[in-house]
Amino acid sequence: MKHLKRIYKFIAMVMILSIVSPFVLSNTKDTVAYAATIKLTKTSLTLDVGKTYTLKVSGTKSKVTWSSSNKAVATVSTTGKVTAKKEGTATVTALVSKKKYTCKVTVKKPVNPLVTNAPFAAQEGSIGKINVVFPKDWNSSVLVQQGNNIMVMLYPSTADMTVGTSNITISVQETATAPTYDVAKEYLASVITSDFITSQLSASGLGDVVVSGFTTSDYETKNGTAFKTEYKADYKTADQEGALKQVIYDLFINNYLVEVTITDIADNVTPDIYQATQYLLDSIQLKK
Q1: pLDDT digit string (tens) for 162-200?
Q2: How far is CA 253 from the centre of its chain?
Q3: What was the pLDDT predicted at 147?
Q4: What's the chain's Rg over C-alpha atoms?
Q5: Cα–Cα distances in angstroms (integers) from residue 17 to residues 21, 25, 26, 195, in the given order
């Protein structure tokens, strides 16, 4: 009899366990699922050069070891702080309990507000030691380059250069010193004369050149005062004759002389070549 009671008691225990066990198993599954939710706050990240963002790992209290696949592009600190260094991509990895969690970091060059705020669709260009903003649909062509001295022509991409077009040329020359404007003005006024312009244009192949309306003045820019020269030039060669207007701005920025010249041959240029030049003068930035 006692033996039967033990059997009944065992069967009863098995029945109780069969009822309880589904709940026990369910709780076990929930625990496993919770442990699997370890993740990074971001799996992809885009930053401008110089900007930072701190990544975090959620779902664990275990130690996190951080690393970057390309420290030249982006670094990461021991606390997950990502710092954008230069344009490119890098993968930041968080190592937790021998398992890796990654975030792709894309670093971009920040947009220059001088480009977005221009009164026309614009782009930023590099000319020697300076950056300038000019019309987006214009091309740039290097005319002369010797060391840190460079001359570049800017012109509409739709222009027919076989017959010429209104254009802007920019010359950047490194100087030994950074003169005050008064000193620079005195020197430039002694060099840039009507006779000098006539000889330069004649030497460029324009034949007989007559310069008229020659004037000089001060011109204020956001980068300082420029020495402004303007004139009209009538020319005649064996094959053709014509006229053009030129305006030259000579501006000293630190120990660089930046000379910006408008050559206006009265063709249709959009945006207006004078508007483009004025904005260019204000947008000049020395490279860091």
Answers
A1: 878 899 999 999 999 899 999 999 999 999 999 999 999
A2: 21
A3: 85
A4: 35
A5: 6, 12, 14, 111
**Residue 43 burial (CB count, 10 A):** 11
Question: How confident is the model at residue 250, as a pLDDT?
Answer: 97
Tell me the C-alpha distance between 219 and 194, whole Å.
19
Spans of the chain, pLDDT less than 50: 1-34
Q: Is the peptide bond before 113 cis (omega within 30 degrees of 0)?
A: no
Place of tokens 């890098």: 90
Quote the CA–CA distance of 177 and 148 in Å, as a whole number: 15
3-state secondary structure at position 58: strand
Q: Which residues pair with 64 in a beta bridge?
A: 96
User: Which two tokens mark 248?
Assistant: 């030259």
Residue 259's DSSP bridge partners are 171, 250
Dihedral (CA of 215, 120, 172, 204) sign: negative
DSSP notation for 147-159: TTEEEEEEEETT-
Nearest Cα neighbor of 168 from 143, 201, 198 is 143
214-245 b/e (C-beta count within 10 Å ≥ 16 → b): bebeebebebebbbbbbbebebeeeeeeeebe
178: helix, strand or coil? coil
What does the pLDDT read at residue 21? 40
Total-model pTM: 0.71
Q: How far is CA 288 from the centre of its chain?
A: 13
Q: What is the pLDDT of residues 21-54, one digit of tens each?
A: 443 334 444 444 445 589 999 999 999 999 999 9
